[in-house]
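A quick aside before the break. I want you to see a complete sequence-to-structure record at least once, exactly as it would be stored in a machine-readable document. Don't worry about memorizing anything.
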Amino acid sequence: MVERAITVAAWEALFRTQVMTMRELSAEFPTELMSLNEYDVLFNISRAPGRRLRLKELNRNSLITQPSISRLIDRLTARGLVVKEPDPDDGRGTIVGITDAGFALFRRVAIQHMEAIHRHFGATLTEEELHLLGELSARARPDTARE
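That is the input. The structure line, written in tokens, reads:
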């Protein structure tokens, strides 16, 4: 069993790194084009098969709360960046798809954001360390099955 103090120290280091890095990334994020929350939603939709995702899945995978996502989807729809349609498999459900204009804007912002991530985070670690960090982070996530 891992000693509690080691666990807390590792968590604090990870948490503080994440907060400080997010501050740097937020300062450079092109908010005149979209918010970080809009980016998160478009990121999730763009990764889904056919760039379409059930709203329920979007709620599960997004970093913001369900009520906020619903309002955000309405704003993105009004801007022509996403479309909503009934889920053909579940009449109560909604499918959200990214439009061509939405995907083009997302890609434009994603390129800038990825460059900032690399500058502020990726350039501080080796490729091997980045792979290891990714694996360890995935294992530590509460939604990841543990053996």
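Two observations worth writing down. The longest strand covers residues 90-98. The domain at 32-118 is CATH 1.10.10.10 (Arc Repressor Mutant, subunit A). We'll return to this after the break.
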